[in-house]
Structures are given as C-alpha cells and as structure tokens.
C-alpha cells in the first residue's frame, strides 16, 4: 500500500471527518501553505468543536478496527485529553496518526477553542480551510516567523476587499491603502478592535518612525498576552506530568489502543489535578494588565503610549 | 461552538505590491513560489515530503539538517 504524504493524509483525514459528520476547520501551517504563505510544513492543526469530540474518539476507535487498521496515539507534549471538559477551555490535544501499517507518523494537533479566535467568527470554506482572518488571529504568537504571515494574510484579505485586512496589516502603505478602500462603518468597526487604526483617521501625515514604534508596541502586547495565557497552561501541565510519571511502571505514550490511552490520560488528568480551565481563577483583565506592565518595561514606554494601541480584552483573550 | 461554512474566496491574482512585500519579507525564492498556481505549490510540497524528512512547523529549516528520507 502506498504511503500517504502529509497532503494526502490531510485529504484522507478530512474525508473521514466529513463522512462521520464531524465539523472541522484546518488551520495554522497547512492553511498557510494553502494560502501561499508558507512553503513547508507536515503537521496539521484542526479546529473541532468540543461538543463533537466524543464522535471524534468514536471515529478513532472505528479506524483502529478498520482494515488496514489506523493507529492513533497521544504524543508526549503539553496538552490535554481529547475531552470537552478540558478542550472547551483552550487546551490543545496532540496526537500521532498512522493511516496504515507502513505509514509515516502524521502529527495532528486539535483545538476546540483556538487562541485569540472569537467563536462567532469561526469560519471555514467548503473544503474545510479556516478563513484567513482565523489563521491570522492564531498566528499572533511570540514566534518571529509568524508575524510576516499575519501581515501577508492581512494583505490577501485586503486584496479580497475584506475589511478584516485592517486588523492584520503591519506596514504603513498597505494600511493606508486598505483604510482608503474601507467604508466609514468598516473603519469604525475595525478601529474598535484595533485602536492603532485611530492614527490613520487622526493624522494627515504619519511619521513612519512614529508608526513603526506603535506597530512594535502593539505586537509586543500580543506577544506578552500570549505568554501570560500560555504559561497558565504549561505550568500546571508540568506539575501534573511530574506527579503522574512517579507512578510505578509509568510509560507514556503507551502502546495501547487509543481508547485505552484516552481513559488512562483522562484518569490521570483528573486524578493529578490538571485544571480543566486554567484561566478560570484569573480575570482576563489581570492577565492583560501584567502583559502591559511587561511591555512598558521592555519597550521603555509610558503606560499611556501603550494604552493608545492596546486592543480590547475581548480581542486579546476572547 | 459552531463553525460557519462560507463560500470559498475566488482565486485572484494578487498585486505586484503583494509579491514585492513577500520578496522583501520572505525572500525572492518564496515570492516566486507564491506566484505559482495552488496545484503547482502543492506538487512542490509533495516533492519535498517524498524526498526529505521535512521539518514540522516548529523545526528549523533547512530540511537537510533533519536528515533526508533516504539518507538518515
């Protein structure tokens, strides 16, 4: 049997999800390949609603019983069981999938509440690709290589006459062109989400260095908020993992079928206190405030200057 | 949470400004690749997947550092 390449696997897995009537959207690296902004990736990232994860696990059980059988396994990195009680609160689940005995390992990451994405904006096309806007929101990480992609998606959105382009562009000329093309209503809506846009309305001439500093501050805010959010997941996960691995004859991932692996991980997560919602006890405003304080310090910026480009909390942490 | 299905955006030819930005930000080679039709881009990626153990999204380019598929 021929070995499926990552792109073929993407289509095979999407077909399986469609047949099982499980909604999904393909995002991150593969979506960036699809949109012509990233040349190479082989992992795939999928958004699957938390309420459909039970059916996804059933699909995995069925595929493991198929001929030729698939193999599905959890991976040994920070993540949660594929269970709504965790996944609805922003955890990611990391799996390895082999779609035949001789298959290469396909790394599959699943989100049910993707970071920075407002649930009402979750869109995909008929082939299953997450919209450019969703991908751009997810790419606002602390990795340098993601930021040109955010701008590129913004450029594409603008060329498709989509006002959301204004949320992602990071170069002055491109922003001015998109601003000019937008209606008054679109300008107001986008400015409410991205206060940096105010400077396009307020100033007849914009000093490029002044603009560049504000773009940098805005990016730092996204990065530091992401860091604040992310560490709320990684810290308790490390505590959980250290406790769990003390068990006698502990081995992870085990060679069991996915259902058994899942029960083992779920039991451990509940038993060793992996928090289903790591952000539950921290007001989002407090996370943003901590991030802003860090930005002020790192960029030697006054709080007022940062406040001028600070997106609303619901935008940073929906 | 519901995922809304929307019609796909039509394939459009992006402006020269877009490809010039891409060349500046990501390099000429990537900008030239981005000009290819989607099928050609996918064909190229498949070639990489078949011939190299290409890195995943988090790994460091070039793929040769991760060992070629037939030259581990």
Describe this structure as you would to a colleague.
The complex is a heterodimer of chains A (318) and B (72). Chain A has 318 residues and is α+β, with helices and mostly antiparallel strands. In chain A, 51% of the residues lie in helices and 8% in strands. Chain A is built from 15 helices and six strands. Chain A has helices at residues 6-19, 28-34, 53-65, 84-87, 132-138, 146-159, 165-168, 172-181, 184-193, 198-202, 208-244, 258-271, 284-298, 303-307, 313-316, and strands at 25-27, 44-47, 71-74, 92-98, 106-111, 123-125. Chain A has a five-stranded mixed β-sheet with strand order 1-2-5-4-3, with helices on both faces. In chain A, strand 4 (92-98) and strand 5 (106-111) form a beta hairpin. Chain A is globular. The relative contact order of chain A is 0.11. The model of chain B is unreliable at 57-72 (pLDDT under 50). Helix content of chain B is 44%, strand content 4%. By secondary structure, chain B is mostly helical. The termini of chain B are far apart. Chain B contains three helices and one strand; from the N terminus they run E-H-H-H. Chain B has helices at 16-26, 28-34, 38-51; one strand at 4-6. The interface between A and B is large, with 46 and 37 residues. Strand 6 of chain A pairs parallel with strand 1 of chain B, so a sheet runs across the interface.
| H/E element sequence of chain A | HEHEHEHEEEHHHHHHHHHHH
Biggest sheet of chain A, strands in spatial order? Answer: 1-2-5-4-3
SSE string of chain B, helix = H, strand = E?
Answer: EHHH
Q: What portion of residues of chain A belong to β-strands?
A: 5-15%
Helix/sheet category of chain B: mainly alpha
The helical percent of chain B reads: 40-55%
Output the radius of gyration of chain A.
Answer: 21 Å
Largest sheet of chain A: 5 strands, mixed
Mean pLDDT of chain A: 94
Q: What is the chains' assembly state? A: heterodimer
* End-to-end Cα distance of chain B: 44 Å
Mean pLDDT across every amino acid position of chain B: 75
Low-confidence parts of chain A lasting 5 or more residues at pLDDT below 50? Answer: none
Number of helices of chain A: 15
Number of strands of chain B: 1
Distance linking N and C termini of chain A: 45 Å
Can you tell me the overall shape of chain A?
Answer: globular
Envelope shape of chain B: extended
Total DSSP E strands of chain A: 6
β-strand percent of chain B reads under 5%
Low-confidence stretches of chain B: 57-72
């Amino acid at each position: 049997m021929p070995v499926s390449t990552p792109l073929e696997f993407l289509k095979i897995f999407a077909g399986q999800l469609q047949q099982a009537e499980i909604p999904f959207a393909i995002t991150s690296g593969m979506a960036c390949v699809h949109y012509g902004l990233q040349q190479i990736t082989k992992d795939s990232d999928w958004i699957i609603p938390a309420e459909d994860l039970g059916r996804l696990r059933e699909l995995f059980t069925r595929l493991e019983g198929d001929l030729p059988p698939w193999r599905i396994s959890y991976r040994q990195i920070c993540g949660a069981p594929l269970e709504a009680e965790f996944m609805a609160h922003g955890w990611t689940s990391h799996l390895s999938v082999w779609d035949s005995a001789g298959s290469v390992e396909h790394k599959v990451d699943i989100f049910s509440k993707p970071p920075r994405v407002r649930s009402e904006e979750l869109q995909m096309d008929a082939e299953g690709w997450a919209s450019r806007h969703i991908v751009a929101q997810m790419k606002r990480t602390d990795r340098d290589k993601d930021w040109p992609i955010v701008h590129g998606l913004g450029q594409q959105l603008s060329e498709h006459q989509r006002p959301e382009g204004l949320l992602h562009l990071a170069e002055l000329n491109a922003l001015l062109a998109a601003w000019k093309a937008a209606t008054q209503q679109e300008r107001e809506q986008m400015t409410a989400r991205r206060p940096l846009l105010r400077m396009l309305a307020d100033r007849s001439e914009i000093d490029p260095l002044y603009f560049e500093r504000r773009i940098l501050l805005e990016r730092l805010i996204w990065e530091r908020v992401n860091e604040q959010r992310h560490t709320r997941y990684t810290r308790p996960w490390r505590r959980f993992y250290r406790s769990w691995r003390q068990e006698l004859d502990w081995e992870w991932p085990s060679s069991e079928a996915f259902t058994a692996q899942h029960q083992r991980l779920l039991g451990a997560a509940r038993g060793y206190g992996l928090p289903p919602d790591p952000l539950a006890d921290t007001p989002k405003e407090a996370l943003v405030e901590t991030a802003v304080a860090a930005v002020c310090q790192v960029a030697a910026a006054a709080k007022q200057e940062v406040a001028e480009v600070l997106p609303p909390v619901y935008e940073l942490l929906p | 949470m519901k995922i809304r299905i929307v019609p796909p955006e039509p394939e459009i030819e992006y402006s020269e400004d877009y490809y010039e930005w891409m060349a500046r930000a990501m390099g000429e080679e990537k900008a030239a690749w981005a000009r290819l039709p989607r099928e050609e881009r996918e064909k190229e990626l498949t070639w990489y997947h078949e011939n190299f153990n290409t890195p995943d999204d988090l790994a460091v380019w070039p793929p040769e550092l991760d060992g070629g598929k037939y030259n581990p």
